[in-house]
Write a structure and sequence with these properties.
Layout: H1 7-45, E1 57-62, E2 76-81, E3 90-92, E4 97-103, E5 108-112, E6 117-122, E7 124-127, E8 135-136, E9 141-145, E10 156-164, E11 169-173, E12 176-177, E13 183-184, E14 197-199, E15 210-215, E16 222-223, E17 228-234, E18 236-243, E19 260-263, E20 270-280, E21 285-295, E22 309-312, E23 317-320, E24 331-339, E25 348-350, E26 354-357, E27 363-373, E28 382-390
Parallel strand pairs: 16-21, 22-28
Antiparallel strand pairs: 1-2, 1-14, 2-10, 3-9, 4-5, 4-8, 5-6, 6-10, 7-9, 10-11, 12-13, 15-17, 17-19, 18-20, 20-21, 23-26, 24-25, 24-27, 27-28
Length: about 400
């Protein structure tokens, strides 16, 4: 047997029905906010510049949310040159980043800019380099427009998107805004911003590549052992290296500019300067020199023998000899030993080829020297002559 609800019961029932409709709306709003926040944050974190040639007008032939731009890449632009040829036109990096992926069939290069933010350049006919994780400065030429995967119509397909984790999972494109002043928000409808003309202002053009020396020999020093000199070239597609000359040429010797090195021994003995020429991704070049460095592994030659010396007891003696010779770093000085032992050695050191002896007792003394050079090489102990002290 049922009965009609009283006023209190009816109020509670109405309240439950109201909350049953309100809760799903709240959760939906929170979910949409959680989805939107990463996009807004990532988009705000990286300022983008137009990837098209500076000073040239380019037209949007397909905008947002229409045609092929109807999935995760909803906020994409298809761009063609207004004046001149589209095919072969240079494509520039929209922001500082690193190469993350290259897909040859569609001519797609993706740059990673940090915090899960990426830019994608598609339908390129050629690409300057596909070296993974190579740093690319904003405005650097990364390739040329083509029609790979574009069904015969050359154009640049440009997208900025966010993704999660190392594989950029759950990708979602973001509405585009460029530093040149072109803001392209979501406005609803098909082919949003189609027909718009965009002009890059040229401020995004990168400078020449830079070569940084990070480890190895110190400039101005001589070494008697092989040393490795390390360097890398920022914003470069390759480099060439040479000792004591500019390694000029039409193309770099090495395509990997992330880590280069030379061995000091490759230059041979002598004083040398390292020259590194870096080729930028946009064709600019920069020559950087490092040094000089000395490499000397040959010990100095001993001085020639000196004539016998005689002196009287109680009088000081000054001994002079012809200098030793060294074709590398040069003679730094001599260790000396003076005594009755014809095989004596000592740590007594003088820089000049002479020594002032105190008054000696009567007898015969041997003068022995060992020449040292500035690289640390030492010659053999040599008896230069005798000193006779008479009573």
């Amino acid at each position: 047997m049922s009965r009609a609800p009283d006023a209190t019961t009816a109020s509670i029932c109405r309240s439950r029905r109201d909350w049953s409709t309100v809760f799903p709306r709240i959760w939906l709003a929170l979910l949409m906010l959680a989805i939107a926040l990463p996009v807004a944050n990532a988009n705000a974190a990286t300022q983008l510049w137009l990837p098209t040639p500076p000073g040239k007008p380019w037209k949007v032939i397909q905008g947002y949310a229409c045609g092929t731009h109807n999935g995760w890449d909803r906020y994409s632009l298809d761009l063609v040159a207004v004046d001149g040829a589209t095919r072969g036109a240079p494509v520039r990096a929209a922001a500082d980043g690193r190469i993350w992926a290259w897909t040859a069939p569609s001519g797609t290069l993706i740059l990673e800019h940090g915090s899960g933010f990426y830019t994608m350049y598609t339908h390129m006919g050629s690409v300057v380099t596909t070296q993974r994780n190579l740093f690319i400065a904003r405005g650097t030429v990364i390739g040329a427009v083509g029609d790979r995967g574009a069904r015969g119509t050359p154009h640049l397909h440009f997208t900025a998107f966010v993704g999660k984790g190392p594989a950029a999972a759950s990708r979602r494109s973001v509405a585009l805004s460029f530093a040149e002043g072109f803001d392209l928000p979501e406005v609803g409808g098909c082919n949003q911003h189609g027909g718009a003309t965009l002009v890059a202002d040229g401020q995004a053009v990168a400078g020449p590549p830079e070569v940084h020396f990070s480890a190895g020999a110190e400039s101005g020093h001589w070494y008697n052992a092989d040393m490795r000199i390390m360097f890398d070239a920022t914003g470069a597609s390759g480099f060439s290296q040479a000792w004591d000359a500019d390694p000029a040429g039409s193309a770099p010797m090495f395509a990997d500019a992330s880590a280069g090195y030379v061995q000091l021994a490759w230059a041979g003995e002598g004083l040398h300067t390292l020259n590194v020429r870096a080729w930028g991704l946009d064709g600019q070049q920069a020559l950087t020199t490092y040094g000089p460095f000395g490499y000397d592994v040959t010990a100095p030659q001993a001085p020639p023998p000196m004539p016998p010396v005689t002196a009287k007891v109680g009088r000081p003696v000054v001994l002079r000899w012809n200098a030793a010779s060294d074709k590398g770093s040069g003679v730094a000085g001599y260790r000396l030993a003076i005594g009755a032992d014809a095989n004596a050695t000592s740590d007594w050191f003088t820089q000049l080829p002479q020594v002032d002896l105190p008054a000696l007792a009567a007898g015969v003394y041997f003068l022995r020297v060992q020449a040292l050079d500035y690289a640390g090489n030492v010659g053999a102990w040599t008896t230069l002559g005798q000193v006779a002290i008479n009573g």
